[in-house]
Write a structure and sequence with these properties.
- By secondary structure, the chain is an alpha+beta fold.
- It has one domain: Gcn5-related N-acetyltransferase (GNAT) (Aminopeptidase, 3-Layer(aba) Sandwich).
- Helices cover 25% and strands 23% of the residues.
- The protein has eight helices and ten strands.
- The strands form two sheets. Strands 1, 2, 3, 6, 7, 8, 9 and 10 form an eight-stranded mixed beta sheet that branches.
- The N terminus and C terminus are likely disordered.
- This is N-acetyltransferase domain-containing protein.
- GO terms for molecular function: acyltransferase activity, transferring groups other than amino-acyl groups.
Length: 270
């Protein structure tokens, strides 16, 4: 049976990498002419556009993050999940019909807009370790815990305001953590592991043993504590887009999955 976290109401997007060249971070997610003009099989899928619609609503419009800063380099490396709600067309501001009325736009050909009754309401991303950014010297920059242990990072958890008491955030966090718990080696699925171990400054760090990090806004630490994350006081506080953040950690039990020593790929065995 193929592994998938997709359903009618949860979309799962694997790392898009070079396909992200079609995304213009200076434009809203519903206005991506470069992506619209390319072959859909080569471009950015609707699921990621929907994730960015949610992030624009929450982080840009509500919290004041500059639009061009919301999309970053980690988006091309990350796994994303998007939750949808089934709503009447008139309740979905991103449906072609409503946008045509409010913006006087031409609906024809706007494949990037969600269907009239399927509204994106929540998203999360997981950036797999070891954050491999190649350097000219042939080495890899790796994200390593203070104990020289690699980790994955959850982030960009966002839920549309009207749905914040419906358990959507918990669903997203549980879904992402469960995927990591069952498929720890998937964090390496797109890399040459042997080459990375040889090239990395800290070869021992290229090994996921269940450590997960979040950069939590100071004001929502209690939310992440409900999911089992603990604040690392040694990391202090820092500023991200004018908002104070702290580091929080959680340890997953991945030993059973590690014993299987298998790497999952889309369409592969469960």
């Amino acid at each position: 049976m193929a592994v998938s976290t997709n359903s009618d109401f949860i979309d799962f997007i694997i790392p898009l990498r070079e396909r992200m060249k079609f995304y213009d971070k200076t434009r809203p997610p519903t206005d991506q002419p470069k992506n619209d003009a390319t072959d859909p099989a080569r471009g950015i899928p609707q699921g990621f556009i929907d994730a960015m619609i949610i992030r624009e609503e929450v982080f840009v419009k509500e919290q004041g993050v500059p639009l061009e800063n919301e999309f970053d380099d980690d988006d091309q490396l990350a796994f994303h999940w998007v939750v949808y709600a089934s709503v009447p067309a008139k309740a979905n501001p991103h449906s072609p019909e409503i946008r045509a009325q409010s913006e006087d736009t031409n609906v024809h050909g706007s494949r990037r807009i969600s269907t009239s009754t399927k509204m994106p309401i929540g998203t999360i991303r997981m950036v797999p370790m070891p954050y491999p950014h190649p350097h000219p010297n042939g080495k890899y920059e790796t994200a390593v815990h203070k104990d020289k242990e690699g980790y994955c990072k959850l982030g960009r958890l966002a839920v549309i305001k009207e749905f914040r008491k419906a358990g959507i955030a918990k669903l997203l966090v549980d879904t992402a953590l469960d995927f990591l718990r069952r498929h720890p080696y998937e964090t390496f699925a797109h890399y040459d592991i042997a080459a990375m171990k040889n090239a990395s400054e800290g070869a021992a760090s290229v090994d996921f043993r269940g450590l997960v990090l979040v950069h939590s806004q100071v004001g929502v630490q209690k939310v992440w504590r409900k999911y089992g994350f603990e604040t690392d006081e040694s990391m202090g506080e820092w500023d991200e887009e004018g908002i104070k953040h702290v580091g929080m950690w959680k340890r997953l039990d991945v030993e059973q999955a590690r014993k299987k020593n298998t790497i999952w790929l889309p369409g592969g065995p469960s």
